[in-house]
Write a structure and sequence with these properties.
The structure is a single chain. With 264 residues, the protein is an all-alpha fold. The chain has one domain (70-263): MetI-like fold (Orthogonal Bundle). It has eleven helices and no strands. The chain has helices spanning 2-35, 40-45, 47-58, 66-98, 106-121, 124-135, 139-163, 167-175, 180-219, 221-231, 235-263. It is flat, with a radius of gyration of 25 Å. The N and C termini lie far apart (58 Å). Residues 73-256 form the ABC transmembrane type-1 domain.
Length: 264
């Protein structure tokens, strides 16, 4: 009986905790809605105007704008590729210090993880805004922002790959008397390369998408074209640019998926 009473008391405590948590979440949602002046009525109130704007001003896209979109589209590709390549190389180096299985010293592990965390948790949009003041508007700003953000995200991903490698191979090479560099080159890097390529290809997809947002704050490419089009009320040109961006993303996803399938 004592055990049953204790179980009932535990169930009541869990029930009270669950109800309290639900009440707090509901209160937070309601409070946030009030503070942001969000309501279902306001959402549907602007629905008609949104439909009118999309189908009246944005559609159909203007095919004549394609000729002026070639250069921005190429800039978007260039920024994304350079951001991925440079970012992945720097991240690969940092990841060997950030992974517990390959770092030569714990202080380097803490420093590498701390740096990656800072670079990763500051959005590429913020990096672009900061860099625009130093370098002005253009693709250089967009490229640098993507490089910095790529380093932050890829360092963590690469470090996780390094921590999941087969330690048996590492110990076998180490048992031969090999030094740190030989252990890395003969046992670690061969296992690391498939993950390196897979994550780099995935980052290229992310960079293609992120380049639009980065470009809208002065980073060049299709994002910059879209921002200028919105300012000039050239909505049909903007919709054409969005369509080009969508095609670019889909094509990139197709090829990167094929590469990942062959590597993995």
């Amino acid at each position: 009986m004592a055990v049953e009473a204790q179980l009932q008391r535990i169930r009541r405590q869990k029930r009270v905790q669950t109800l309290t948590l639900v009440a707090l979440i509901v209160a937070l949602v309601v409070w946030s809605a009030v503070e942001t002046q969000f309501s279902v009525m306001s959402l549907f109130g602007g629905f008609r105007e949104s439909i009118k704007l999309v189908f009246g001003d944005f559609l159909p896209p203007k095919p004549e704008a394609l000729s002026s979109l070639i250069e921005p589209a190429l800039d978007t590709i260039y920024m994304s590729v350079v951001g991925m390549v440079v970012g992945s190389i720097i991240a690969a180096v940092l990841s060997f210090f950030a992974a517990s299985t390959t770092t030569p010293h714990r202080s380097l592990l803490i420093a590498a993880r701390g740096l990656a965390s800072v670079l990763r948790n500051i959005p590429a949009l913020i990096w672009a805004l900061v860099l625009a003041y130093a370098y002005g508007l253009g693709t250089l700003v967009g490229t640098l922002a993507l490089v910095i953000f790529s380093v932050g995200t890829l360092t963590r991903s690469f470090a996780e790959v390094l921590e999941e490698i087969d330690q048996g191979q590492v110990e076998a090479v180490r048992a031969t008397g090999a030094n740190y560099i030989k252990v890395l080159s003969q046992a670690v890097i061969p296992q690391f390369l498939p993950g390196f390529v897979a994550w780099s290809m995935y980052k290229l997809e992310i960079n293609i998408r992120a380049s639009t947002i980065v470009g809208m704050v002065g980073g060049g490419g299709l994002g910059f074209y879209i921002q200028n089009g919105l300012k000039l009320f050239q909505f049909k040109n903007v919709s054409m640019a969005i369509l080009v961006m969508l095609v670019l993303i889909l094509v990139t996803e197709f090829f990167t998926n094929k590469i990942r399938e062959k590597v993995i």
